[in-house]
Amino acid sequence: MATVMDRRKKNKLTELHCHILPGIDDGAKHLENAVELLVEEKNQGVENIVFTPHFNFDKITVEQFVERRDKSLEKLKNTPEFQEVNINFKLGSEVYYTVNIATQNLDKLCFEGTDYILVELPTQVRPHGMKRTFGSMISKGYCPIIAHVERYSYMIENPVELYEFVDMGCLAHVNAETVIEKNKMAKYFIKHGLVHFISSDCHAMSWRPPNLESGFETLRDFVGKDYDEILNENAKRIFKGKSVDTYDLKKPVNLMGIWI
Ligand SMILES: [Fe+2]
What we know:
By secondary structure, the protein is an alpha/beta fold. The chain has helices spanning 4-10, 31-43, 62-77, 80-85, 130-139, 153-157, 159-168, 176-180, 184-191, 212-222, 225-239, and strands spanning 13-15, 46-51, 54-55, 88-91, 94-96, 116-120, 143-146, 171-175, 197-199, 254-255, 258-259. Helix 10 packs antiparallel against helix 11.
């Protein structure tokens, strides 16, 4: 029987959320930090990667962001290590949610060449009108991917909310770190078909490093071996701009205060 490592060699991983581009956000500060992260992604078995620096409509225009992102990528591309790792890559972003996000032109913020757009929500206070906003993004042809859903108190308290977003066409992910920590809610989300992939959301080698391989290894034992294949395949499909099979979506039920 093939081991995880054997299988992984044949079936490489896809990273859809990371802060590797240098000097653009709170991720890699300098070029050498970016190179370290990229090489570690390769060591983890990553073959496809979307670079997703933070973007906030309140802080910068899309044009300014795109210019900074291009320059940052150029620096990284000019390193010998970039050529050496030979990873397929795309540009993207992690857009901080704003109530008027759906009125903006989001094309340049999507994962390059796709309609997928990674959206980060406030962790504690639930924004008003999210359902309407996501609905309007979807009707304009975008597919919102809700970043690290295990962080939002209002989704942990009421996973039906996440279910409704997924049911209307949004996708979601949890961070690999949360799986490695054996977070029960992450397992619950995955088992209910409420998240579609895992990613490292790596920022630096010293905190939140690239850890997809360990994430998938834990996932096999902690959640179930089938999910390993499903979530990796989903990530690959998203990278290619293909639709994702929303597997086994189940509506969360609360029984005597416990989510089952
Ligand atoms: Fe992030």
